[in-house]
Amino acid sequence: QLSAQIITSEAPAKFITRIPFKIYSGGVMVVSARLGNYTDTLHFILDTGSGGISLDSSTCVHSGSESKLTDTAITGIGGMRKVSFVFDKTLHFPGMDVEHLNFHINNYEVLSSVYGEKIDGIIGYSFFSRYIVQLNFDSLYMDVFTPGKFDYPRQGHTLHPLFTSIPILYLNIKDEKKIKANFYFDTGAGLCFLMSEKFAKDSAVLLKKRKPVITQAEGMLGRLMMRQTIIKELQIGPYRFHGVPAFIYDDTYNVTSYPFSGGLIGNELLRRFNITLNYADRIIHLVPNGNFYEPFDYSYTGFAIYQIEKRIIIGEIVPGSPAEKAGLKVGDEIMAIDNNVSKNIKIYKNMLQVPNQIFQLIIFRDGKIIQRNLKTKRIS
């Protein structure tokens, strides 16, 4: 008697749509979408470092979305906070609708002032876990596919990271010595690399001669101060990067889950690859792109700038930094840098990325126009 053996195979993944995105400072990706029946176009950060999906509190009000307070707490770079939710909403992208999304509510005013454009929310695991997503940083578009059998590019390298709600890579880093550790794969982080103070101390990975500088960073839950330096080498799969800028973060709420993870790798480095994300099969595929050999930003100013309406305002200033030595003050309004009077925060940030350079700043302070010369420093 013969028995029939049934062989099943996974159905091929099917292309759904192509969605353009913009790149903001630090390599952060922003896509446009509409929420439910709200007619305005909204701007969302694409963030593999987010365990869900979120909506700005003011956007929630303006869109008429009803929120409900919950006991759920979120943690992020900047702290921990209980949040409200908007339940069962649909995001409308060109060529596709993503239904039954539960958005937690957060205030993204700081992120909007950092990037100079309204940030309406953050798209994370709730989106990426449903599809196969290809991110092309050469052409600035995202291709979305149904889950299924997928033909990856022949070039590049396939990684098999751990997956919680956030992908976790096992990386080699080297400075004083060589260390292997887990790091979160975080496209929403506008930096190259971050490690917690506890990891940096316990691993003793940094060269003793390193002299980190104090700088300010912005996270999902607000502003905070960090230390910044470089590490000799960081390796992802077969790909090595040398002289990588690194932030060291006093992780009070253990957002980085130390000792399980040492920190995160951000999109200022990840944007140097075209990336395929397949959460269902636990695969990340990387192909070096046209940004692969682009120099890193080693410049240090010691101050932050924000766009408030159409004004570029100086925020916190680190004592002893180039900004303090130049005589800049919190609340100064930048009218021009060198001969550039655009008042475009993205342009000004790009200009200041040159280390050991003297820039002429025209400042409006207390009703007067003044000039200050700022010499940027190089992190080491």
Detail the topology: elements first, then pairings.
Blueprint: E1 15-20, E2 22-23, E3 29-35, E4 42-46, E5 53-56, H1 57-62, E6 68-76, E7 79-93, E8 96-106, H2 109-115, E9 121-123, H3 125-128, E10 132-136, E11 141-145, E12 157-159, E13 162-163, E14 167-174, E15 178-186, E16 193-196, H4 197-203, E17 213-219, E18 222-236, E19 239-249, E20 263-266, H5 267-270, E21 273-278, E22 283-288, E23 299-300, E24 303-308, E25 311-317, H6 322-325, E26 333-337, H7 345-351, E27 358-365, E28 368-375, E29 377-378
Parallel strand pairs: 4-9, 5-8, 15-20, 16-19
Antiparallel strand pairs: 1-11, 2-3, 3-4, 3-7, 5-9, 6-7, 7-8, 10-11, 10-21, 12-22, 13-14, 14-15, 14-18, 16-20, 17-18, 18-19, 21-22, 23-29, 24-25, 26-27, 27-28
Verbal overview:
The protein has 7 helices and 29 strands. By secondary structure, it is mostly beta strands. The strands form 6 sheets. Strands 1-11-10-21-22-12 form a 6-stranded antiparallel β-sheet, with no helix packed on it. Strands 3-4-9-5-8-7 form a 6-stranded mixed β-barrel. The radius of gyration is 22 Å and the shape is globular. The N and C termini lie far apart (76 Å). Residues 1-8 have low confidence and may be disordered.
* Alpha-beta content class: mainly beta
Strands side by side in the biggest sheet = 1-11-10-21-22-12
User: What is the averaged pLDDT score?
Assistant: 92
* Strand count: 29
The total count of helices amounts to: 7
Helix content: 10-25%
Major beta sheet summary = 6 strands, antiparallel
Instruction: Name the shape in a single word.
Output: globular
The rounded distance between the terminal residues' Cα atoms is: 76 Å
